[in-house]
Structure formats: C-alpha cells, structure tokens
Records
---
Amino acid sequence: MGQFPADRFDGGSGNDGNPIVAQLGGLVLARIVVVSNRVNVPNKDSARAGGLAVVLRSFLKRNHGVWFGWSGRVATRGEEAVRTLDHGGVTYITTDLARADYQEYYNGFANRMLWPILHYRLDLAEFSSRDLSGYLRVNDLFAEHLSKFLKPDDVIWVHDYHLMPLAKALRDRGHKNKIGFYLHIPFPPPELLTALPKHERIILSLCHYDLVGFQTETDSENFARYLTNECRMPSIDSRTFIAGERTMRIGEFPVGVETAEFERLARRTVRLSFVREVVTSLADRTMIIGVDRLDYSKGIGLRVKAFERFLADYPRWRGAVTYLQITPRSRSEIREYADMERRISENVGHVNGRYGEASWTPIRYVNRPYSRSALAGLYRSSRAALVTPLRDGMNLVAKEYVAAQDADDPGVLILSRFAGAALECRSAILVNPYDEEAVAAAIDKALSMPLEERRARHRDILDVLSENDIKFWGSRFIEALTNPPGDSRWPR
Ligand code: ADP
C-alpha cells in the first residue's frame, strides 16, 4: 500500500486471502445491511451511477444484503412512502422524506453545517437549532424504519456524515447488532471541530458504533485526538476507546477505484464517437481535464485563476492547450452553491475573453454530467488532469484518471496535497491549490514532462491503486467490524 504500513491492510487480497473468511466460502455469513442517505436503486439511470455505488451494490449482491435509505423523493408529511424492491439478490428499501425533514436534515444540518465544518470551512458553516432537531429526527426516523426488519445477527454498515447518530438511535431501541460507520469525507482537527455548536451531541454519538472507519490516518488521528483531549474518553490503545460497556475502534479504509476495469473501459471508450469528436475539435492541441461536482471544496475558482496565471507566465502554451472543465451542478438550492456557480462562470469568461482568439477558447467549461464511459475516454485523451480540491476525503477522479491512462504514453496527474488521494498518489505532481504560481508551474511541468518520467510516475501510482482496488474495500471493513477486538488481523 505504498506509504501505508503494510499491516494496516490485509495486503489487497480481499476475502480470498483471509483464512477465516475463506473457510466461510468467501462470504460473510451474517446478512449485511447498508444504510446511506441515498440508495442507488437499479433503474434506467444505473449506468450513470458512480463507481462506489456500483461497488457497494456488487458487494451486497455477494452477501445477499439489504440497502436502506432515502428515496430522493420529497413528500407531503404523512404521505412518505416506504418502498421495497428485490433485485439481483439485493433488497432495496427506501423511504421518502417530508419537506421539512429534507430542508432541515439534508439541506440544513448535513449540507450547511456538517459538510463545511468537516471540510475545514468554518467560514461557511451556518448553525441552526431547528436544523439540528431535523437531523436528529430523521436519524430517529431511519432507526424506526430499520427496527421493523432488522434481525439480531444482521451486520449494519452506516455511511457518511448524514447518519452519524444512527447507531445511538438504534441502540436506544435495544439493537445490539454489530454496527459500523464509515465517513467518506474528511474529519478535521478538534480545534476546528469544536466550533460546531453542541458537537458532543453529534460527534460523541459515534461511540455507539463498534467500528468507525475513515479515509486516511489523518482523519483517524483527528477523531482519536477529539475523543482523548476534548472528551477525556478512556482508551485501551490509540485506536480503541471504552464507551460504557462497549469498545469502539477506529481504522482507515481508503476508498479506491476498480483499477483494472477502469483501464479496460478507458481503452474501449477512447474510440467512442463522442470522445473522438472532442479530440478532433481540439485541432491537435493538448488537452488538460478537470472533472468535479460544483462544490467549494473542489477549488475550481482558484484552479481557473491558476490556469490564467499559467497562460500569463508560460506564453509559449497559448493557443496550444485546451483546458476542459466538466462540472455538473450540485446542491443548487443552497445559496453558497448558486453564488459560486456564478463566480466561476464569470472567471472562466474573463480568462477566455482575455486570452482567447477567434480560433481558440482556452477553457471549455461544461455544467453537465457525463457517463462513466465518456469520462473514461476523455481522461485517457488528456495529457494532464487538474485535481486541486482545497480539502477532499479521498477524490476518486484523481484515481480514475490514473487508472484510465495508456501505460505506454500516460498523462500526468496534478493533485492537491489536501486530497486524501495524495497519500497514495505520491508520484503525482503534488501542489498547494492556494498557491497560484506553483499550480501554474505544475501545469507547465506536466505538459513538458519527458515520456520516461511520465511512465515511471504512472507506474508508481498504478501499483498502489492496483493493490488498493475498491473490490476489497467492503470485505475489509466488514471483516474488521466482525472480528473481535484484539484479533491480530485487525487493521491498525
Ligand atoms: P465527490 O464524491 O466529492 O463528488 P469524488 O472525486 O470522490 O468526489 O467522486 C466523484 C465521482 O463522481 C467520480 O466517480 C466521478 O467519476 C464522478 N463524476 C464526477 N463528475 C462527473 C460528471 N461530470 N459526470 C459524471 N460523473 C462524474
């Protein structure tokens, strides 16, 4: 695992390499119940589902699991429907949310308070007691629904910041199941986290889980420091805490991508007519790509400025490079997102106006989603990727870009040091996204890099990504959750 100590993981062998799981025929015998805010119910849009959704679904299929969460629909209070669908060996159970629940739990506390704070953005956090009540109420509602179908030996795996208090709500209803929690986004240092009003109410409720998983060691350590220094929680060791009658463990399980599959997909899709059209339209110019949801954590505004600086400082590239930024809108109902959308469009217009010519547009800025296939082909057709989040739990685009490259003639990843992925992608050009001049220099370096160096850097990162293929992520987490404390195979 590159920079990670080898004993943090089971060596990337997944179920096959674990003697106990192998004895069980490669399956965890208990039923797995995954709970997340949204559920990727198979439908006509499934082809667009992100890598993680696809992987969770295939993990649940192997284990005949259940996936529970919000349907994505908002209904009149009292008319929220609960629907069950059995498909491909997985049971999907979804509930609608009432409008007030959606506003206070999802738009409010989760996305206006927790998202910014957990991404280190105290300046954008907006606290409201009403949103906090809505957040706790929806977690209670989820627990109430889950209670109706949980069996005593179900293993429950809860995902992400929307559902931190869910284990407590389930324990309050008497459930003694193994319950694990995985945080997909960063966990900030306690010095920042304690700016969250009533933080104990939310963060300490994580101690009702048996296992709390994070993307990186930094996140785990921040949580451990919060528990030790802020809450004076007794501990057995640096990763095992005593919470009343139970122990709660902390571990790192960095999310990966389907490395080999993504390379195969990119090899195929580079020939798609859509991708060929884009490449032809470049008229032999080099392409740089950026792919991000429109979110302030992604640093798109500063990236556009850095690209402008690049055109100013390295004039030989003017007219020779096209930067394609693909940015589907997200959370447009929240004011900061709408403001940011306007600002970025203006900045892009400014750069294009200043440096563009009738025959050349420096930045192509597109606000729509594309299929995984199209993205894979575009990644492979780009000489460099600009992935410069100001803070990111992992960043899968960075990993997908590397996986998609042609090993004989690979592109170069320019990656923010503040993305979780930077720990595994040490051979990328790592940058500080706040330093325009350094990002501009990194773009020049990427575009000028000799083939041998590009190949060596690509090989280094690919080795790490192949070892940490997402296929093994689910089984690693569930093994850690179901193994008794003190088991030597537990990741540390
Ligand atoms: P986040 O989860 O914060 O949005 P990640 O980089 O970790 O960021 O994951 C984003 C996922 O969404 C990736 O799998 C990526 O391929 C996908 N994605 C990003 N932008 C688009 C887009 N324009 N169209 C389709 N999928 C996208």
---
Amino acid sequence: MALIVQKFGGTSVANPQKIKAVAERVMGYRRKGHRMVVVLSAMAGETNRFVELANQMQAIPDPREMDVLLATGEQATVALFAMAVKEAGLDAISLLGDQVKITTDRMHTKARIKQIDAALINRHLDAGKIVVVAGFQGVSEDGDLTTLGRGGSDTTAVALAAALKADECEIYTDVEGVYTTDPNICSTARKIDRISYDEMLELASLGAKVLDIRSVGFAKRYKVPVHVRSTFTETEGTWVVEEDKEMESNPVSGVTCSKNEARITIARVPDVPGTASRVFNPITSQGIVVDMIIQNTSIEGHTDLTFTVPKGDLKKTLAIVEPVAADIGAERVLSQENIAKVSVVGVGMKNNAGVAARMFEAMAAENINILMISTSEIKISCVIEDKYGELAVRVLHDAFGLDMPPPKKK
Ligand code: ADP
Ligand code: ASP
Ligand code: MG
C-alpha cells in the first residue's frame, strides 16, 4: 500500500466528463488499497478568464483581490471531483489551501510555500478518504488567500508529496512527459525517459511549462522523484530524478522558447557607482524577477542598461523605473514586448565546448538576429524577435541532433 500524490492539470479536468474520467483513474488506485491525495488545477482556460475579468476592473489589479478571484477556479474543480467520487460509491473530501494550512509568504499572485501541515490530510487518509486538494493556493500567516503563480498546482503537488513523505508523485498532463522541446511546436520532439533536477529546473525556468519551476525546486530539495505522464494514456512518462553519468552523454538535452518576458532599456545612464543598485533594488523588492541584464561599455560617461522582466510585470516595472531613471539623470526608458527567449539546455554542456558557436551558427543560417545572450553552466539563451521563436526552436532542435533517435549504447 503506497501513499500516492497525483496532480491533474487544467486540460485533464476541462469539463465534467473529463473530471469523471480522472476520478475513475484515481479510484482505480484507491480500490487497490493505496492512500490517494489528488491535487487539481482549475478547468482549462478558467485562470486566464479570471485574469481578463480583473483587467477590466483595474489597470493593475489589486494583488490581494486577484488571489481571492483566482483561487475560485481550483475551488470549483476539487468540489466537483469529490462529488464524482461519492457518486461512484467511494469517499472523498475536498480541501482548500487554507484548510490544509499550506502556509505561504504574503507575495500575492506569486507566493512561496513556507510550511504544510500534514495532520488534517493524514486524518482523512486514515479514514479511507481520497483527499482532493485545491492546487495553486495557500494562506498567508495573516489569514489571506494567496496563489503560487501560474502553473502553481505542480508546486502544490510536489510540496505535498514532500510534506507527506509520499511514495510517489505523479504529474498528469496533456502530453506524455517531458520532451526535448515543446511537442506542440516541434513535431520531431522526443520524450525524455529520465531527466536531472538541474536540467529540469533550467527547462522550466526557460519556458518548458510542462512543470512549474518551483515544483522542481521542491523535488530537488526534498529528493522527490517526479513522474510526469499523460492523463489520457497509460504510457510511462518522464522521471525527474537526480543526475547520473548517462545523462551527460549529450551536450544538449532540450530546447525551450519563452515569450513571457519583456525588455526594458534605460538609455544614457550616467556611469557612476551605485546606479545599478538604485535601479534594481526597488524592482526586486516588489517581488519582480529581473532576468537578463546587460550594461554596455561606457561611452563619454554614459551607458545603456537593458534587462528583461516577466511580461505580466512590465507595467508595474515601468512605473517603478521611470521616476528612478529621471532621478539618476538617464535620457529615457524604452520597452519592447515582442521578444522571445530561446535556450538550449544540457548537463552535458559542461564537458562539451562549442555549443554556443553551434547555436549562433544555426540561428545565423536562418537570418535570425540575436538581441541579447546569456549563459550558465548548463544553458545558453538568446533573446530574439518573437516572430522567429518557433522557427528558432525547430532549427536548434535539428542542429543539436535532437530530431534523431538517441545513439544506441555499445
Ligand atoms: P497542465 O495544464 O497539465 O499543467 P501545461 O499546459 O501547464 O499543462 O503544460 C503542458 C504543456 O507544456 C504541453 O501541452 C506542451 O505544449 C508544453 N510544453 C512546453 N515545453 C515542453 C516540453 N519540453 N515537454 C513537454 N511539454 C512541453
Ligand atoms: N490554474 C493555475 C494556472 O492556470 C494553476 C495551474 O494550473 O497549475 O496557472
Ligand atoms: Mg501546468
């Protein structure tokens, strides 16, 4: 008898039929005697619909109220799911983030989980119930509802698996696992059988939304093996696990594209000590994640400072940056939303020279202009115009031999 945490994403619970089908799948495990904890997302499209509604109310929607609104999507699916289980004659109970006591910080719309109380869930499991937990939500120490950021139900699931010391954590979605790139963009993408936490962290942070980055962080920290697989088939999916030697054989194991960022340039910034800190401190203290940063060589005592932030935070960032720019005597602030960041990721890159050169060459062959570049030990990213995003993914996937089946081991 195992304790299994299973998470089902929005497309898996998109309508009543699908909710019933997922309930059947879970009940199959329960009937075999397993202790089942299920984490659900909102129905596909619901969270986006709420965001649009909020945007009709306020230019920058109040984050606390946004969370009260967003949390209702998951509240609906867990209740419907529990009803479906009861109708089939088994017992289930739905629980919201504040009932479980998924305690988070106060960073509304992107809160971090600080603690989970396993007691209530364990009591219901002991009573034989299927415990259905609303994904994506928690409660701050002062009792306000919070949400964990888009894709956050994955994080709820992995954090629960860690807190409950579950035997298995399965993330069910609309593709059969983690692929070498988004299978919906590149038809030659291949499913990866096993991937390291570190590679998955990079893929997730660079746009492979199949797993939320924070869920991978929890999995790595608490050594939770995560099985990503399809809701609609029985096929074995991808295991996200600790790195092993075999994973280092390919320099690149995945290609990603993210269109979630926007670029801001502060032009002609006086080149004096303390400027970067004056610009970035007020941004990051608002919980806005600054990604790539480029400062040009100083010409006549002035430089340009360019950086990227999540598109959803652009308005808020500009509101912070514009007065600071005026204050420090910069010439003007420019922003650009039509950008994409394409990246190649692989632990094997550590031992393989020439990956960057091959990446730039492949992009040049298609005449794709590179606007910004950043590298780390296991990834290289380029910012390009967003209209070339999908093309760049396919070209890079091919250039790094990912289109072909992996070489047979001797
Ligand atoms: P869910 O609603 O189940 O959480 P998501 O839409 O968040 O599902 O994530 C699954 C989607 O992630 C897939 O449909 C696919 O288009 C996208 N995706 C992007 N990159 C990858 C990748 N490398 N492997 C698998 N899926 C990917
Ligand atoms: N419903 C939330 C979203 O769409 C959380 C999730 O699905 O993981 O981002
Ligand atoms: Mg998701």
